[in-house]
From TrEMBL:
Organism this protein belongs to: Actinorhabdospora filicis
Classification via InterPro entries: Calcineurin-like_PHP, ConA-like_dom_sf, Metallo-depent_PP-like, PAPs-like
Name recorded for this polypeptide: Calcineurin-like phosphoesterase domain-containing protein
Record carries keyword Signal: yes
Domain Calcineurin-like phosphoesterase: start-end pairs: 166-331
Keywords: Signal
Chain residue ranges for the region called Disordered: 465-484, 541-565
Biased composition (Polar residues): 465-478
Lineage: Bacteria, Bacillati, Actinomycetota, Actinomycetes, Micromonosporales
Signal sequence range: 1-22
Domain of life from the UniProt record: Bacteria
Length: 751
């Protein structure tokens, strides 16, 4: 299944393209080719569907990022809004706690997709390119807990006499996605049968259903009733895939699901098999499941279907893990098999027949060539899969009054964990004025039991900048982490600009890297700063029009608030510096939602200050909310000059559980140079009693006496996406270019 991903200016834009990380084109030999912007705007592209899972956080990727981090994340994955690599070009992703995956030309060319997740708080992005036509674009991330799981459920052969019982099971399980393995509405799959039988029962899950057709759907010409019901009458595409094909794929968590239509040609030379092989090759997830109607192996009335052998062979060759089928009205689990049907516990494909969705069960049996392990033909029920990044837990859930169950677990073939380590740096961008110094914390994380010494070095610092690491070697505990400090000392002679400093960790010949983007500025002039440790003269409710009934802004030491609903920390009890912050009700309260922002708007105004030349405003913030929030809730920062207030930045809510985390934002105040202004911080709970917490700290306005470097690229404009993430719009894809020098040697540079 595919969705369209748009790249366009304005509030509906969803795409951010990665752009140049280094502002000094060609100035850093040994760092790989520079990234230079293609003039063309990113086109409308297809997106491989990634089903949302509970408890995940998500955000956007900054331009030029070679490392993406989310503090406190257990695992993190990236969204590529486009990937078009040529020849042997590649992009390697490496998790901060180990694990890596290299994307090549075969991986979803011309399509948007989420990658597999990587353990740790950060993912490093390392391109290796030779062809100037290669492009990629990274625009978003998702993160989860380290042990996060997602539940998917379904069955085949549904309506039926007992689908009004099995639908209760789906309701009770409450999966994020529902699958059907064909023969959804008897007897002929007409639109009337779907509306009268399926819709009142399983139809309640239609919005999250990913169906497969069966032979009874084709009792109506072209399965028109099936496609009309799921896609909409006369629509060519929709949740059931393209009309006339009915095969498609979708993702959830770290699993790739493939839907095969066994009622149209699926021979080795068919268009469907060609699609299947290409789809499996393009997939980046470590775990793969497939479902279809006709079973390759079955001990039921219909028995084995040898015509499904090409499908099984393709799945086995791609190291798929799970195949779910229907058609025979019973439950059966087989041992993992190879392409020849022989048991292969290490690399085989485990298959099921789950034709127990509600149509009358078959009493007759047959002999199967497959290695059957469990068989039952007297119990209606559904399959429940609890899926992780490395495997699955399966349960057969029976209808009320029946006692038969089945349970089995399995590991994903492409998710094996070997001893490894990762390197990450936080923050990944540091701005230092001439004559000053800055630092970043380098984390060395272990996975798979790794516990060896990792030597750390730093490279890429420009003339006049000294980069050092202390300690220079870190030995992380097995499956834990250790840290070192990267110190960056900038002399008065250093040239202004942005430089990627690469931290390299080496152990037993294996290297992992992280990048810290160092921006050298002129001698800084701070015109206003406040860490909220003392009263600097902020005024709460300055206009006298605030409407909040609780959770009004106050300066002080915030208490940590943990949601009893999601078990997530919302208001943070720690601050980026010192002990105080500006918070929407600093006290924790004694119950869910107590002392959070309620009833409307709260605001606070800074004292007046004069904006210096080339000024920028930076601040730390935390926005956390419950799944009863919406885009009506917000945290905003505005500037007031001459009686006019202009919004500079905002973060809005969304219908999702988002945990608290300190983040930083920077916006330009250059347009207000020389003017006397005040800052206005405002927050609103306008979604009708939603849980919404907001905090601000370390507000700083800094100007520079130096002009920006000649190759300075001004920041992109910003808008607010409906989901509440701050989105940079109309940025180009990364394009790689090589330019021949006059000596014939290859060098990197913009074209």
């Amino acid at each position: 299944m595919r969705r369209k991903l748009f790249a366009a200016a304005g509030g509906l834009a969803l795409l951010i393209a990665a752009t140049a990380a280094a502002s000094q084109a060609g100035a850093h030999p040994g760092q790989g080719p520079d990234l230079v912007a293609d003039a063309a705007r990113v086109p409308v592209i297809e997106q491989v569907e990634q089903v949302a899972q509970g408890g995940q956080r998500e955000g956007v990727v900054a331009p030029g990022a070679r490392q993406v981090c989310d503090a406190g994340a257990g695992r993190i994955r990236l969204r590529f809004s486009a990937l078009d690599l040529r020849g042997d070009d590649s992009v390697t992703l490496t998790g901060s706690r180990g694990g890596s995956y290299t994307l090549t030309a075969k991986n979803w060319p011309g399509k948007g997709f989420y990658t597999r997740s990587f353990p740790g708080e950060c993912v490093a992005i390392t391109p290796s390119v030779e062809d100037a036509a290669s492009t990629y674009a990274v625009d978003a991330w998702q993160s989860t807990a380290a042990d996060a799981t997602v539940v998917v459920a379904g069955a085949g052969d549904i309506c039926g006499t007992a689908c009004n019982q099995t639908d209760d099971l789906i309701s009770s399980i409450n999966p994020v996605a529902v699958f059907t393995a064909g023969d959804n509405a008897y007897e002929s799959g007409t639109l009337s049968e779907f509306n009268n039988q399926y819709a009142p029962t399983w139809g309640q899950f239609k919005a999250k259903t990913h169906p497969a057709p069966g032979n009874h759907e084709y009792g109506t010409s072209g399965a028109s009733g099936y496609f009309d019901y799921f896609n909409g009458t006369g629509n060519n595409t929709g949740i059931a895939g393209e009309r006339g094909k009915g095969y498609y794929s979708w993702d959830v968590g770290d699993w790739h699901f493939v839907v095969v239509n066994s009622d149209i040609s699926h021979t080795a030379s068919s268009a469907q098999l060609t699609w299947l092989k290409n789809d499996l090759a393009a997939n980046t997830k470590p775990c793969t499941a497939a479902y279809t109607h006709h079973p390759r192996y079955s001990s039921g009335d219909h028995g084995d279907d040898t015509g499904m052998a090409p499908v099984v062979s393709a799945l086995v060759a791609a190291k798929a893990d799970v195949l779910i089928q229907g058609h025979d009205h019973h439950y059966e689990r087989f041992a993992p098999v190879n392409a020849s049907g022989q048991t292969d516990q290490a690399n085989g494909l485990r298959t099921w027949v789950i034709g127990t969705g509600g149509r009358a069960l078959y009493s007759s049996t047959s002999s199967s060539a497959g290695p059957s392990e469990v068989f039952n033909n007297n119990t209606f029920g559904v399959a429940k899969f609890q899926l992780s990044a490395t495997g699955y837990v399966f349960d057969f859930v029976p209808v009320a009054g029946r006692t038969f169950t089945d349970h089995v677990t399995g590991n994903c073939h492409k998710a094996s964990q070997t001893a490894d380590f990762g390197v990450a740096a936080s923050p990944s961008a540091v701005s230092v004025a001439k004559g000053s110094s800055g630092s970043s914390t380098v984390s060395v994380s272990s996975s798979g039991g790794f516990s060896s010494a990792v030597a750390l070095t730093a490279s890429g610092a420009p003339s006049g900048v000294t980069a050092s690491l202390s300690p220079a070697s870190v030995t992380p505990p097995a499956n834990g982490s250790g840290t070192s400090t990267l110190s960056l000392s900038v002399s008065a002679s250093a040239a202004t600009g942005t430089y990627p400093v690469t931290v390299t960790g080496t152990s037993n010949g294996v290297t992992r890297t992280a990048t810290v983007n160092l921006t050298v500025t002129g001698t800084g002039t701070s015109s206003f700063s406040d860490d909220f440790e003392t009263d600097k003269g902020w005024t709460v409710n300055p206009a006298g029009s605030d409407t909040a009934s609780a959770g009004k802004f106050e300066r002080g030491d915030p208490e940590q608030t943990t949601s009893t609903y999601s078990n997530q920390v919302k208001q943070l009890g720690t601050t980026p510096s010192g002990v105080n912050a500006l918070s929407t009700g600093r006290l924790a309260g004694s119950a869910y939602g107590a002392n959070d922002l309620d009833g409307g708007v709260t605001s606070a105004r800074s004292p007046a200050f004069t904006v210096p030349s080339g000024a920028s405003l930076s601040f730390g913030y935390n926005v956390a909310h419950g799944d009863n929030s919406s885009a009506d809730d917000y945290l905003r920062v505005s500037v007031t000059s001459g009686g006019t207030t202009t919004q500079l930045w905002q973060k809005v809510g969304a219908a999702a559980e988002v945990a608290g985390a300190w983040q930083t934002a920077t916006v330009s105040l250059a347009a207000y140079t020389g003017q006397s202004v005040t800052l206005l911080v405002s927050a609103a709970d306008a979604a009708g009693g939603s849980l919404f917490e907001a905090q601000v700290d370390d507000v700083k306005v800094t100007g520079t006496s130096a002009a920006p470097p000649a190759n300075y690229i001004p920041p992109a404009t910003s808008t607010e996406a409906p989901s509440g993430t701050r989105v940079l719009t109309a940025l180009p894809m990364v394009r790689f270019a090589h330019v021949a020098s006059s000596t014939g040697a290859r060098r990197s540079g913009p074209r």
